[in-house]
Amino acid sequence: MNKRIIIYIVIGVILLITVNSSIFIQDETKQSIVTQFGKPIGEPRTTPGINFKVPFLQKVQFFDKRYLEWDGDRNQVPTKDKKFIFVDTYARWEITDPLQFFIRLRDERSAQSRLDDILDGETRNAIASHNLLDVVRSSNRDPEVTEDFMEELEILEEISFGREKIEEIVLTKANERTTDLGVRILDFKFKRMNYVNEVRDRVYDRMISERNRIADQFRSEGQGQARKIQGDKERDLAKIQSEAFREAEEIKGLADAEATAIYANAYNQNRQTVELYKFLRTMESYEKSFDENTSIILSTDSEFFKFLNKLN
């Protein structure tokens, strides 16, 4: 009785192991093929759910059904116009034929390595066939000018191709080379580009030179404007001073004329006032003309000598 129970248990375990080995569950993110002694058997399994295989003799190879990521290495690439740049790329791909994929590549690691060769090679070919401007720009857009001086500075050269078209070329050429691999590249983009150090230094020097030229132009225009303002100021100042001097002289002339008229009216009242006026004016002239070191020679009939002679 005990031996029979043990036999039943052993048979049950064997059946359980056999059933478990013959059934596999495939979820919606996977696709698979069944292999026997390393060779694929039957059609790929792409439908999620329960699937069957020959126990112990057959194995299941699972492959991802989702979009997969490819991230390229940062490579130094020359452009058609002999400019060396660092290019960093990325792509998205999927396994479209699991059977062909298994025959040609076996697994995703091998696929990534093969895509490295294909995409890096096509990237080099595409960039080497176009000028730098076509690689870094996508369209002949008009630059946004925020300052007047930028109208001259921000003049963009025309491009004949453009970055997006180059990406499309790489994508098309790469897919032509992956048709027999059971994969399809969905998208390819340039993630980052940069000049090599030598080229970047030359670009910076050119940018600095251009900005210095604009600055020199501003300084020259500013100096010219400053000289014009200074000249206008001096001209206006001279004009104001001249007009002020003229007005002052006119006022002094009018004042002297009025004073003379007042003096004339005052001293022309009679003969005594006239004589007093002449005496006072002569005394004022004596005061201004003579000092202790002054010597003069006058004739005896000189009007200027008249009052001196009377003093004697």
Automatic annotation (TrEMBL):
<comment type="similarity">
    <text>Belongs to the band 7/mec-2 family. HflC subfamily.</text>
</comment>
<dbReference type="GO" id="GO:0016020">
    <property type="term" value="C:membrane"/>
</dbReference>
<keyword id="KW-0472">Membrane</keyword>
<comment type="function">
    <text>HflC and HflK could regulate a protease.</text>
</comment>
<feature type="domain" description="Band 7">
    <location>
        <begin position="21"/>
        <end position="207"/>
    </location>
</feature>
<feature type="transmembrane region" description="Helical">
    <location>
        <begin position="5"/>
        <end position="25"/>
    </location>
</feature>
<dbReference type="InterPro" id="IPR036013">
    <property type="entry name" value="Band_7/SPFH_dom_sf"/>
</dbReference>
<protein>
    <recommendedName>
        <fullName>Protein HflC</fullName>
    </recommendedName>
</protein>
<keyword id="KW-1133">Transmembrane helix</keyword>
<keyword id="KW-0812">Transmembrane</keyword>
<dbReference type="Pfam" id="PF01145">
    <property type="entry name" value="Band_7"/>
</dbReference>
<dbReference type="InterPro" id="IPR001107">
    <property type="entry name" value="Band_7"/>
</dbReference>
<dbReference type="InterPro" id="IPR010200">
    <property type="entry name" value="HflC"/>
</dbReference>
